[in-house]
Write a structure and sequence with these properties.
The structure holds 2 protein chains of 2 kinds. By secondary structure, chain A is α/β, with parallel strands linked by helices. Chain A is 45% helix and 16% strand. In chain A, helix 15 runs antiparallel to helix 16. Chain A is globular, with a radius of gyration of 25 Å. Chain B has one domain: MetI-like (MetI-like fold), CATH 1.10.3720.10. In chain B, strand 1 and strand 2 form a beta hairpin. In chain B, helix 3 crosses helix 15. Classes of the chains: A alpha/beta, B mainly alpha. Chain B: It comes from Jiangella anatolica.
Chain lengths: 419, 313
């Protein structure tokens, strides 16, 4: 009798333990996004890689604090996710119906997220008509007449050069090449760009300038044109520089940017956000900025929209933040923080900023000729096309195939991918 | 009362009362929680992975799957890149096992000898194994850095420098560099395990072999190897499975590049799932990995049993 009781007790205990484990596994929170409400105050999460930027991050946090101070019922908390894994981390969360309420995306991830229905349409949440939005970057925020985002930051690409090493910046590609060659000696390099597969997104950003700067394009809007003659010419220029050993081969962006700050790299093509970073990190560096000296005045731009997560339970509150951000004085403050980048609306640069960075106007003048680094007409598939193109271009850099064959292969693979 | 009589004597009431732990269900009760845990945390995800591998599922919309049958498997085996991945995985695993067990055995044989400072050397040898994988990957990356890495400086000094110095960006040298790093991290474990196995070799057998005129090689082959063989087999099995699964070292050093030259199954799986966002394809690749691991385990069991039977004969 006792044996039976003990056995039953043990079975019951084991069953209970199992049920507890099962219940624990199944007790996933019902809440979808990171928003929460406590005592009438809704807390929103705003994810952006720039919050971790040592130059701009703390200032952006102060900017958020100003919003929080202006509100009684909404608090926005910054969530810093490192740039290299930002898209992957946030898209995975959003795909699972979770994630931050507000997100500052880069274009490829923005396109992928909007195509997958992970971003809330803003048309009924934010009345953008009342704001003076910059037309060129803003047109990429709308898909089939549905607005999915508002520009948080638009940053054009230009040529950064060490003014101590280069008194007069080159104005043609031949000059550019010759300057890079003449300055390369010992542990000093004339130029630096990304050229490793480990920095796939960065390589894509860099080769974009060579392709568009030589009159090429990844697509004509309907068909892919990866192996177009102009693209071949532009990428050949990129490869010629690589083959000429005027760059620190194998160095990643963090390394060669440190080298630039130390005067060991003379030129670099980069976006406006870099100017603020350099000023903060290397205040004594004598650098300046000029347009990229390629045959065609067309270059990439980092367009970073701010969007609302479709899974957010506080879309109205998130929209309140976006409306606040679009107000003229807050745009001006954001512009000051972002430095050489532009914001959603036309703002006037302060005399102090222009005195500190006189080259800011160079970036502003490039806005009309800058394009987001996506494949037009195939925006949502850009990350997959990017992988194919970068892999094949690197195969050509490594000498595994010639560049023309590499681009033909990329064209074929990418065409198969997009159907 | 003799012992036999005691055994034959009728049991008292107390003697008949069986221990509550003596039931035939007791083992199941003890195994139950572990079984439930494994079922929940390994069985369910595995079943889900099997299902996913037969679907087209996007990471961006994982609840909306389309059943595609064997299409993912047909696609991956029809893809030359995947076949290259399988070849790379094979080369990586075989080289890791041979390198780590071989180097471990060599070091263990050296450490099994008497010399001054042996204790210190034994402790020093374990450092690479004690270091976290991420730290090892970062240190190796710095050492191989084309601008300021010590490896390139050394290779340049002895006239063996890689053009441009970018070892990890060369489709020729990246995999060997990763292999050397992996073996460097693994050999301490194999050497420590093999050292303990070597210390179990009976001295009298070694002395008898020496007295019979056997040389070092024959003594090792006829005596030492016979004793440590099961340990080597177990280590080879563990190294194989760990090498098939190894992710962080390769990912941090090359991300599978350049041009897929260091892409193993797990790297491909991760890239498909999180870069390309194709969970179905990633699950199919994962299943291929599971099948390969099962084949390795089954093969190992067969070899062990055959060896045991041979030993009994």
């Amino acid at each position: 009798m006792r044996t039976t009781r003990v056995r039953r007790a043990m079975v019951a205990a084991a069953t209970a333990a199992g049920l507890v484990v099962t219940a624990a596994c199944g007790s996933d929170s019902d809440s979808s996004s990171d928003s929460g409400s406590d005592g009438g105050v809704t807390t929103l999460t705003f994810a952006a890689s720039t919050f971790g930027d040592p130059g701009r991050g703390p200032k952006l946090q102060e900017w958020l604090d100003e919003f929080n101070a202006s509100q009684d019922e909404i608090i926005v908390e910054a969530a810093s996710v490192p740039y290299p894994t930002f898209g992957q981390t946030v898209l995975t969360q959003m795909g699972g119906g979770e994630g931050p309420d507000l997100v500052r995306f880069d274009m490829p991830e923005f396109e992928a997220a909007s195509d997958a229905g992970l971003i809330a349409p803003l048309d009924d949440l934010v009345d953008v008509e009342q704001y003076d939005l910059l037309e060129e970057p803003d047109r990429f925020m709308v898909h089939d007449d549905v607005r999915h985002g508002v520009i948080f930051e638009a940053s054009n690409y230009a040529m950064f050069y060490n003014a101590d090493l280069i008194p007069e910046p080159p104005t043609t590609y031949d000059d550019f090449f010759a300057t890079a060659q003449s300055l390369t000696a010992g542990d000093v390099f004339g130029l630096a760009f990304r050229q490793t597969e480990a920095e796939e997104a960065g390589v894509w950003q860099d080769i974009f300038n060579y392709v568009y700067g030589f009159g090429g394009a990844w697509s004509d809007g309907e068909n892919l044109t990866i192996n177009a003659p102009e693209n071949l010419e532009g990428l050949q220029a990129y490869k010629d520089l690589y083959d000429a050993n005027v760059i620190p081969r194998g160095a990643d962006a963090a390394t060669f940017r440190r080298m630039f700050a130390e005067g060991k790299v003379a030129m670099e093509l980069n976006n406006g956000g870099y100017a603020t970073h350099l000023r903060a990190e290397s205040p004594n560096l004598n650098f300046s900025v000029a347009p990229i000296p390629f045959p065609v005045r067309s270059q990439g731009a980092i367009l970073a929209p701010i969007v609302i997560n479709e899974a957010s339970e506080a879309k109205e509150e998130a929209a309140t933040f976006i409306q606040w951000a679009l107000e003229a004085e807050n745009q001006a403050a954001l512009q000051e923080i972002l430095g050489a980048s532009s914001v959603a609306t036309a703002t006037e640069r302060s005399p102090e900023s222009l005195q500190d960075m006189p080259f800011l106007t160079v970036f502003d003048e490039l806005t009309e000729t800058s394009l987001p680094q996506v494949v037009l007409g195939f925006e949502a598939q850009t990350p997959d096309i990017r992988k194919i193109v970068v892999q094949n271009v690197i195969a050509a850099l490594q000498g595994d195939v010639d560049l023309e064959t590499a681009l033909d292969t990329a064209q074929e693979q990418a065409t198969d991918l997009v159907g | 009362m003799t012992l036999l009589e005691q055994r034959r004597a009728p049991r008292t009431e107390a003697g008949r009362r069986r221990s509550p732990l003596g039931s035939r269900w007791t083992p199941y009760l003890f195994l139950g929680p572990a079984a439930i845990f494994i079922l929940l945390f390994q069985g369910v995800p595995l079943a889900q992975e099997v299902y996913l591998s037969f679907t087209r599922t996007s990471l961006l919309n994982p609840t909306n799957s389309t059943w595609v049958g064997l299409e993912n498997y047909v696609d991956i085996f029809g893809d030359e890149d995947f076949r290259r991945t399988l070849r790379t995985t094979f080369v990586y695993v075989v080289a890791c096992v041979a390198g780590s067990v071989g180097a471990g055995l060599l070091v263990a044989l050296l450490l099994n000898r008497s010399f001054r400072g042996r204790g210190v050397v034994r402790a020093l040898v374990t450092i690479p194994w004690a270091a976290p994988g991420i730290a090892v990957a970062l240190i190796a990356t710095w050492m191989l850095n084309p601008q300021y890495g010590i490896v390139n400086r050394f290779l340049d000094a002895v006239g063996l420098g890689v053009p441009g110095g970018a070892i990890l960006d060369s489709s020729t040298y990246a995999l060997p560099a990763i292999l050397v790093t992996t073996v460097w991290q693994l050999f301490p474990l194999t050497s420590v395990v093999l050292l303990s196995a070597l210390q179990a070799v009976p001295r009298d057998l070694l002395e008898a072999a020496t007295m019979d005129g056997a040389g070092r090689w024959w003594t090792f082959r006829a005596v030492t190897w016979q004793v440590i063989k099961p340990t080597v087999g177990l280590l080879a099995l563990l190294m194989t499975i760990w090498s098939i699964r190894r992710f962080e070292l390769i990912w941090l050093m090359t991300k599978g590049g350049p041009v897929g030259s260091t892409e193993t199954l797990v790297i491909d799986l991760y890239a498909q799932a999180f870069d390309s966002k194709q969970l179905g394809t990633a699950a199919a690749i994962g299943m291929v990995g599971v099948v390969i691991s099962l084949i390795v385990i089954a093969g190992s069991r067969l070899v062990t049993r055959a060896a045991e039977k041979e030993g009994l004969r």
